[in-house]
Amino acid sequence: MTLLGDCCLTIDGNPIHGVPLSFFRVAAYLMLSDRAVAQPRQRLSALLWSDSADDKAAANMRQAMARIRHLQDEHDFKLIEANFWVLHLVAAPSLSCDLLDLLDHFDGKRTVSPVRLCSIYGGELLAGLDESSSGFEEWLATRREQLRNGCIDGIAAGLSDEGLSLAERALCAHRLLDIDPYHEGALQTLMLEAAERRQILRLTHLYDAMRSLLAEDLGIRPSKQTQALYDELIEELKAG
């Protein structure tokens, strides 16, 4: 199951069509809550349908859970269980989920390399889903920022990891710029890679593109460190 970037449920390599959007939302909420503790059904219904009256939100939750149960029964798997009071995740060893992998890394349950993080973080949490209630969208915005910042920090660690090859550090840099276009540490890594390959035109293009982006979007110049590195690399390439 993919929850980072475009949501998708795949079984035996085959994408499942018509998955209720509530399945992805409920799964993400339960994964980002204390996974060892069942979550109150009323709390989640109030969050998912925060703009509706309590009775309407409860009715919507009943309909959503009926669709989720039908999906799971039809495809013979179990991830979400619920009763009248609570919802919880079911242990599913065969389930592969990008969000769970990421959370296990953040919680220290498993170590994921910066290169692996580049592929795990496919985009924002629940990207591509239609907008939900104001309450859920506020909750989602907070969780998206937390996951995004955590991935930026994790991938950025690869920029200075001497155990990685130059190509792997460059891969981390490219992914960082996809997530944060203003990340000068990523730019510096790509500039070093271009200099290593003696690609003076690419080096200049990388620096000029960042300089323009920072000026147009933020009204600032590249840091003194970035400017000094660019000047040093250009001088070395022209001298060599």
Q: What does this entry look like structurally?
A:
- By secondary structure, this protein is mainly alpha-helical.
- The protein has two domains: 10-151, no CATH class; 181-239, no CATH class.
- The chain contains ten helices and five strands, in the order ββαβααββααααααα.
- It has helices at residues 21-32, 41-48, 54-74, 98-106, 114-120, 134-156, 166-179, 184-196, 200-218, 224-239, and strands at 10-11, 14-15, 39-40, 80-82, 86-89.
- A three-stranded antiparallel beta sheet has the order 3-5-4.
- The mean pLDDT is 95.
Brief account:
With 240 residues, the protein is mostly helical.
Topology:
Layout: E1 10-11, E2 14-15, H1 21-32, E3 39-40, H2 41-48, H3 54-74, E4 80-82, E5 86-89, H4 98-106, H5 114-120, H6 134-156, H7 166-179, H8 184-196, H9 200-218, H10 224-239
Helix pairs in contact: 2-3, 5-6, 6-7, 7-8, 8-9, 8-10, 9-10
Strand content: 5-15%
Approximate helicity band? 55-70%
Overall shape: it is elongated
Count all strands and give the number: 5
- Could you name the ranges where pLDDT drops below 50 across 5 or more consecutive residues? none
* Major sheet characteristics: 3 strands, antiparallel
Gyration radius, in Å: 22 Å
Order of helices and strands: EEHEHHEEHHHHHHH
Mean pLDDT: 95
| Structural class assignment | mainly alpha
Number of domains: 2
**In DSSP terms, counting alpha (H) and pi (I) runs of 4 or more, how many helices?**
10
The strand line-up of the biggest sheet is: 3-5-4
Q: End-to-end distance, in Å?
A: 51 Å
